[in-house]
Specification:
It contains 5 helices and 19 strands. With about 300 residues, the chain is of the alpha+beta class. The longest helix has about 40 residues. The two termini are about 45 Å apart. InterPro entries: Peptidase_aspartic_dom_sf, Retropepsin-like_bacterial.
Length: about 300
Amino acid sequence: MQRKLSLKLFVVLCLFFISVNAQNQELKNSFDRINSLFRSYNISSMDKDWRTIYKNVKMTYKHPNIIISFDTRIAPGYSPLPTTKLGKNSITTPLKSTTFRLNYNQVQIFNTTDGIEIMECGEKSLEGLWTILTKDDILSKKIYNEFCHFQSLVNNSNFMGSLGTNNMPTSGNNANKYTRKVIKLYRQASNVYTIPCKVNGLALNFIFDTGASSVSISKSEAIFMLKNGYLSVNDILGNQQFQTASGDIQVGTKIIIKKIEIGGLTLRNVEASVVHNENAPLLLGQSALSKLGKIEIDYNNSTLTIINEK
């Protein structure tokens, strides 16, 4: 009797793993088809006086984030696209490449004249999140349909990691190798999220911005910190130029923040920019976020989870 039960259990486990492998393979196949479609189409866009050509478009997926990466080529006779703001979300466009991070529940708006348009509409599925407009309607429909198919595969999968496989161990001895720190985010009326931090001991609320390349503070905040001992002249590295969305060249100041505390974690020697604008927002960008390790963002529950090895 016991042997029969063991045999049945073995068969069930075999069928389960066969099903999982087939499910993962289908997810990977859909993922590959999307990237293949991207490779077959060079996206051109024009925004007023700024022209650029996006090539080598590709998608990466690590639940819950879908990342669309563009290798940017500048059209002859035109300068690179500046750092710009579209809609409510800040998007950084470097000279050679740019990444737009998309989530199921909150989507950054990337709007071009004749390329791809991604619009936030309050839906929680790719059918609702993506409106893809291209010159080639046939290819556009193929991309759209494949995104919808990919979404359904993700929703039907119990494995919510990269391409349908678990990113982090959740059972056994491996689970004990990791610590999880959950930090509360605060949603504002403008549909951005703030996170409380301490900068060299000064309590400040930063906008959580995965699209910003570095921590950014306003000129007025920097002056206050200098006057009250939270910054020193030794922390100032020098001036740097950057281009605004209107095409104007402005000067900012690059600094080093000795210590940023986030949810009990301490980050040291973080690069930051002082924007020469009295009303510039405080942004917590990648110069700090990249030091946290692996992070997971849950916009439904307004939480940031930091995962590190013990």
